[in-house]
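=== RUN LOG ===
request id: a7f3
mode: sequence -> structure
chains: 1
length: 222
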Amino acid sequence: MTGNKTIFSAVAIVLLIMFAGCSGPVGGSGSGEEKTTPTQTAEPTQRATKTPTPVPTETESTPLATEEPETESRGEEELSRAEKFEAFDENLQDVYEAQADDRYVDSETNPDNNSYHLTVRMRDTTNRTKTVEDRLNPLWKYQAAVSEYNAENGNYEERDHTWIPDSVNVTFVTQDGEVFQTSHIKYLWAYKYYSDEWSLRVLMGKYSATLEEGPAYHDKWK
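=== RESULT ===
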């Protein structure tokens, strides 16, 4: 029995030494009980994610065009042909009124075919001198408009040839309102005279060649 106790004691001592080596401080002194400090796991540092700045696109940077309400003060270039011809008609009527000329009867603009119609009253178809003057009067007034609208320093600098009808048809009536004669004037003729390409004689010849007799025409002069 003594041998068995001795063996058991030896085994117990060996086990004690083994357990003491696992839990006790190495090469140190003190109590065999050791306080264990919990290990703090380091949290991963979150890097601040840099949000990319949005690049403005063409749609974002370009302001949307807003439709402006139409105003009465529109530019001259925006006027239609009908509006320009109406202004021409008013101008011609003002000329007749300024000259106290009662020969004006009526007028009509035709923007679709770029023409204008003028009705003129003859003062006395039995008087040859007055008849000739009355027939030439629309030519002079139209020629004056062409000159004014094309002149750089004229009274109508904002206007040009687009304000003037290409063709003016004239109806001459008697005091009773019957058609005495008809004629027409071309813009090209008036402009050639304005630019000194034609003489007055050529202009008057072109215009006179367009005269046609009406139902009330006669050549009985007093």
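=== NOTES ===
The beta strands are 104-110, 115-121, 167-173, 179-186, 212-213.
Residues 180 and 217 are 5 Å apart (CA to CA).
=== END ===
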